[in-house]
Write a structure and sequence with these properties.
This protein is mainly beta and about 250 residues long. Strands 17, 18, 20, 21 and 22 form a 5-stranded antiparallel beta sheet that branches. The chain contains no helices and 22 strands.
């Protein structure tokens, strides 16, 4: 391509209208061409691009505007308590192509059930209009652990829309990266697992040089911090655990 070469674009007006129909190539000899399907029209059309003396034709297939089927899924299999999860609904026409731009998923015949305890954070900006074949909804997850299911049924259209669709997600406590510090006199160990461990039972595990172990439990304060004061004689390696989280080790002695 030649820098600043003239670019012209023609669409097959039966199916394709051009949004960016002319211009010049940039310093790399490139140009961005944008075309779109004619509203409410579907089929295979073409866009012809001319750059200088070179002409090229590209076929473009325009999707149909009737929703035939859809799929839906969360963007993750698990989310933390009260975290965010994105539900994506992907729509297809009868030929299996992404549904035409701007088609609205209307409420007629739809029975949708959001998971208990989930609240909508954001919905599609243009109502329930598909963009690039997709609708996305962001939810704030429940604050109780468990497995949750979003379900939707639409019964007023052709295809398999009368089939119940579901999307499942697990809500669980997120792993906490706990920390352990031992005082300068090596007699007091302090474990910090953060607010999620507030008032919970923290395990302090002590191991001797011979491999003998002792476990002591202490209740964390409102900030998730617990302390253990050694009562055993000798030198011990210590670590703390809460749930699936285990701290690094320290050394205690008395």
């Amino acid at each position: 391509m030649v820098e600043n070469a003239a670019v012209t674009v023609k669409g097959d007006l039966t199916y394709v209208s051009t949004v960016s129909a002319s211009g010049n190539t940039d310093s790399l000899g490139q140009s961005t061409i944008t075309a779109q399907c004619v509203a409410s029209t579907y089929g295979t059309g073409s866009v012809t691009v001319t750059v200088g003396s070179i002409t090229s034709t590209q076929a473009i297939t325009c999707s149909k505007t009737t929703l035939h089927t859809w799929s839906m899924a969360f963007d993750k299999t698990a989310v933390g308590l009260g975290g965010t999860a994105v539900l994506t609904i992907t729509g297809y026409d009868v030929d299996g192509r992404l549904i035409a731009e701007g088609v609205v998923l209307d409420g007629a015949g739809i029975t949708a059930t959001a998971p208990t305890g989930f609240t909508t954070a954001t919905a599609p900006a243009a109502g329930n209009a598909f963009s690039n074949g997709k609708l996305t909804y962001t939810y704030n997850a429940a604050t109780v652990e468990g497995t949750y299911t979003y379900s939707m049924l639409k019964t007023t259209a052709a295809g398999d829309l009368s089939t119940l669709k579901t999307a499942t997600i697990t809500v669980a406590k997120e792993a906490v990266a706990g920390t352990l510090t031992v005082g300068s006199k090596k007699r007091i160990a302090t474990a910090d697992f953060g607010a999620s461990a507030a008032s919970k039972k923290i395990a302090f595990v002590l191991e001797s040089a011979s491999g003998a172990t002792k476990t002591y439990y202490r209740k964390a304060n409102a900030s998730g911090v617990a302390k253990y004061t050694i009562v055993l004689r000798g030198t011990w390696t210590v670590y703390a655990s809460y749930g699936d989280s285990i701290t690094d080790t320290g050394t205690m002695r008395r």
